[in-house]
Amino acid sequence: MTPDLPPYHWPEPQWRAAVDRVRAGRSLKPRHWNDGARCAVALSFDSDHETNELRVGAQSIGRLSWGQYGPRQGVPRILRALDRHGARASFFVPAVSALLYPDEQRRLVAEGHEIGIHGWIHELNSELTHDVERDLMFRAADTLEQVSGRRPVRMRTPSWDFSPSTLRVAREMGLLYDSSLMADDDPYELVEGGEATGIVELPVEWIRDDAVYFSMNRTSALRPYTPPEGVFDIFRREFEGAYDEGGLCLLTMHPHIIGYRSRIWILEALLELVSRHDVWIATHAEIAAFVKAEAGL
Ligand SMILES: [Zn+2]
Question: Would you tell me the crossing angle of helices 102-110 and 130-148 to the nearest 10 degrees?
Fold first, then answer.
C-alpha cells in the first residue's frame, strides 16, 4: 500500500483492494415475500437521543434537551402510530441511550419490536482501531441484552459509518444482518475480500432517511429545505417503486426528528397507504431471516 500517493497514481491492486474490502454479493431478493406478499416494508427508528450531543464530546444543555425530546415525545408518538396499524418495527439503540432509558427498551421488546446495536455512544467506527471498535460492539451488545433481556442479532453502524474492521467484528459476533450500506434497494449478501459471509445486508439510503431533510445547524445557513409534504412524497414513491418491483422498502427515521406534531403524520399517512396494499410489514430481523432461508443460506 502506498497511501501517500495521490489516487491518480495508485497502482491497480491498490484501488482494487479498496473496492473489494466489503462488496455486495448475490441478491437475496426473494420471488415472493412472506405469505406471498408482493412487497416488504421495514421501518426503522434510530434512538440516538442524547448521544447526538455526547458522541462529539459536547455537553450543551440545550442540545441535550433536544435529545431528551426523542424519548419523551418522539417514541410514544411513534409507538401509537405503529400500534394503530398493528405494525412492528426495528429500533437501533446506542448502549448509552439504552442505559439512560431502560424502561423504553423493555417496552419496545414487550410490544413486539426489535432492538439492534447502534454503537456505544454513537461513535464513528472509521475513527477507531480494530480493538476499540470490537470492544465497544461487544459491550454494546451485552448492554442491550442486560437492559432488554434479548441478545441483539443485528447491527446498524452509527451514522452508517462502516470501518475496515466492522464486518470482521460482525462475523465474529455471529450477527444475522447489517443495515448500514447502500449497494442495492433489495437485500443482498455481504462479501468480504471476495469471500461470501452469509451476513444479510438490508440496505439503507440517505434519501430514505428523515434526518437529511429536517436537520438544521443553528449557526450556519443550513436549514431544512424540504417541507414535510415533500418528504412524504419521496417516501411514498420509494414505497410505490418497491411495490411495483416486488422489492423491499426500508425507511430510517429518528424519534427526535419525525416525532414532532407537524411531522408524525408522515408516518401515519405512510402506514395507511401501505396497509391498503398486499405488503408484509416486518422487523428487520424477520426480513433478514426470511430472505436468508429463501436463498438457502
Ligand atoms: Zn444514529
Answer: 70
Taking the centre of ligand 1 as the mean of its atom positions, its distance from the CA of residue 13, in whole angstroms, is 34
pLDDT for res 2: 60
Burial class (CB in 10 A: 0-12, 13-18, 19+), 220: exposed
Q: How far is the CA of 158 from the centre of ligand 1 (A)?
A: 5
Q: What is the pLDDT of residues 34-87, one digit of tens each?
A: 999 999 999 999 999 999 999 999 999 999 999 999 999 999 999 999 999 999
How many alpha carbons lie under 13 Å from residue 32 in its C-beta half-sphere? 5
pTM for this predicted structure: 0.95
The single-letter code of the amino acid at 157 is T
φ, ψ dihedrals at 114, nearest 5°? -110, 155
What DSSP state is assigned to residue 209? B
Amino acid type, 122 = H
> pLDDT per residue over 178-188, tens digit each?
999 999 999 99
227 Cβ neighbours under 8 A, 6+ residues apart? none
Ligand 1 centroid–CA 214 distance in Å is: 14
Distance 48 CA to ligand 1 centre (A): 5
CA distance 101 to 107: 10
Query: Which H or E run includes 65?
Result: helix 61-69
Q: Which of 164, 112, 98, 154 is nearest to 134 (CA)?
A: 164
DSSP 220: S
Using 50, 70 and 90 to split pLDDT, how confident is the model at 219?
confident
90 Cα: distance to centroid of ligand 1 (angstroms): 13
Alpha carbons 46 and 49: distance in angstroms, whole number:
9
Report the run of H or E that residue 245 belongs to, with start and end. helix 228-245
Please identify every residue whose CB atom is under 5 Å from ligand 1, which is an ion: 46, 48
Residue burial 200-211, b: 16+ Cβ < 10 Å; e: rest = bbbbbbeebbbb
